[in-house]
Amino acid sequence: MNTPAILLIEDTPTLQMVYRSVLTSAGHRVVLASTASEGLEIFRAQENPVVVLDLVLPDRDGLSLMQEMLALRRETSVIVMTAHGSINKAVEAMRVGAHEFLVKPFDEQRFLAAVANALSNRTPKRLAPRTAALPTSVPANSAFIGTSDAMTRIHGKIASVARSMATVFITGESGTGKELCALAVHGNSARASGPFIALNCGAIPQDLLESEVFGHMKGSFTGAISDKPGAATAADGGTLFLDEICEMAPALQTKLLRFLQTSTVVPVGATRPKKVNVRIVCATNRDPLEAVRLGQFREDLYYRLFVVPIHMPPLRERGDDVIEIAEAALARFSQEEGKSFDGLAPQVQALFRALPWPGNVRQVLNVIRNVVVLNDGGVVTADMLPETLAQQQGAPILARVAPAPAQSAALDDLIGRPLAEIERMVIEATLDRHGGSVPKAARVLHLSPSTLYRKIEGWAKP
After folding, report:
1. What's the Cα-to-Cα distance from 43 to each of 47, 54, 186, 372, rounded to whole Å?
2. Mean pLDDT value of segment 317-330
3. Are 186 and 239 in contact (CB under 8 A)?
4. What predicted TM-score, i.e. pTM, was given to this entire model?
5. CA 162/CA 280 separation, integer angstroms
6. What is the phi/psi pair of residue 335, to 5°?
7. Which stretch of DSSP H or E encloses residue 282?
């Protein structure tokens, strides 16, 4: 047979025998090594596109062995194995180039799925340069631009992680471009020709979220008038992006963990699991570790997902990126509206640099869209800006620090009330101001709609 063998490096004889039996029964050729030195010697002597490596070996640390192997042949897919007590070590291995990790004990199906994914990645890949200004999959006129040090590091990290199957966990404030980051990871990967399916876990009612993720069968619940494939099935061969992952209900977190471990989905009402090949990218605007501490997010799921973290910095920390984003948006929106604008006036550029931009990139795009729609063209001056933004031009710091007399009086009315009561008053007042719209109120309060729904339901209970 001309098919290159899988190199299995495992020092425990019984496990070595079990793993080899599973692989050979599935039609794979296997070559065995019991030590790091033996494994490295075999690796140097022959082509092994996939290496299954135990991180704890008698003669050498498995992590350093993996790094040496990847230095010799970067295109190698390394699957690392570790026990529960060494998950942090497996996460570190993913960060420095491992293709996948398995936590012992793992089942046969999970093992073979990891190997199949690794073999599908066999075509040699060349990493994009770390200093590339923009991932190739992101259009130059998108909001995912910027030459600041922070964005240059992110572009480099995307280029490095895109080639692997490692789960990417994107954090950052609302409006910083987390979904664009996920698209860049997908577009620079071997899965770029496959589907990119995005699902907002905070915008879907919890009782429907399982069906949205895993699908359902006809008649499985009221309203299920036909079979429906879920997002996980729709993303087969591509990437599944789970936004606001920390808003997922605990019961569904358990099923998501099982999906990650087995690469199978069971639609609501179905009895047979279905195999899928999906790469997971997730995002949140919360601190996921804090959600774990509060018991809102499973710790084992956190460690399963938080393999390669990418933090999208707020716009206020990105220097002149705000000018690049604004000018790119100005050119794009001008073309869409059939108008001609000649850039930003110096005073507008100075204002943009000074503003805190709490809505980040999304806020900048809204401001520029407003300017283009309401003005005929020319150089963008301060008087063209929306009134709410232009008002911040004069003494913005004093305006934020010194409360108005009316604000002080309002605070006096709140002092002495329980915090829960104050929270309810603020939420109800915000809902009234926005016509009872929960999504609009949630955006103003920087909460997810699902969190707001839960609070409202809690008030309704006796």
Report:
1. 7, 15, 30, 60
2. 90
3. yes
4. 0.57
5. 12
6. -65, -40
7. strand 279-284
Q: Could you give the angle at the alpha carbon of 219 between the alpha carbons of 216 and 223, nearest 5°?
A: 85
Separation between Cα atoms, residue 54 and residue 85, nearest integer Å: 14
Token pair listed for 304: 């399963």
* Domains of the chain, each with CATH number or no CATH: 6-119 (3.40.50.2300), 149-313 (3.40.50.300), 319-399 (1.10.8.60), 403-460 (1.10.10)
- Answer for the pair 144, 138: CB distance below 8 angstroms, yes or no: yes
pLDDT on residue 88:
67
Query: Rounded to the nearest 10 degrees, how much is the dihedral formed by the CA atoms of 65, 71, 74, 80?
Result: 10
Alpha helices in 375-448 (DSSP H): 387-390, 396-401, 405-414, 419-433, 438-445
What pairs with residue 281 in β-bridges? 168, 241
Vertex 262: Cα angle to 286 and 31 (nearest 5) = 120
Provide CB contacts within 8 A for 328, sequence distance 6+.
140, 141, 142, 143, 145
Three-class secondary structure assignment of 108-170: HHHHHHHHHHHHCCCCCCCCCCCCCCCCCCCCCCCCCCCCCHHHHHHHHHHHHHCCCCCCEEE
Please state, in angstroms and rounded to a whole number, the distance separating the CA atoms of residues 437 and 413.
26
Q: State how far the Cα of 110 lies from the Cα of 275, in Å rounded to an integer.
A: 10
Name the DSSP letter for residue 56.
B
| pLDDT tens readout for residues 68-87 | 898 888 888 899 888 755 66
Torsions phi, psi for 267 (to 5 deg):
-60, 155
User: Looking at this protein, which amino acid is placed at residue 125?
Assistant: K
Angle, nearest 10°, between helix axes 62-72 and 36-45? 10
Give the strand order in the sheet containing 168-171.
196-200, 239-243, 279-284, 168-171, 308-311
β-strand pairing of 274-275 with 264-265:
antiparallel
Beta strand 30-33 with 6-9 is parallel
Question: What is the three-state SS of 163-184?
Answer: CCCCCEEEECCCCCCHHHHHHH
**Which token pair is 419?**
């915090």
Q: Tokens 């004889």, residue?
A: 13
Q: Measured in whole angstroms, how far is the alpha carbon of residue 374 from the centre of its chain?
A: 36
Give per-residue pLDDT as tens, 232-258.
888 999 999 999 999 888 888 988 888
* Residue carrying the six token digits 């004093």: 398
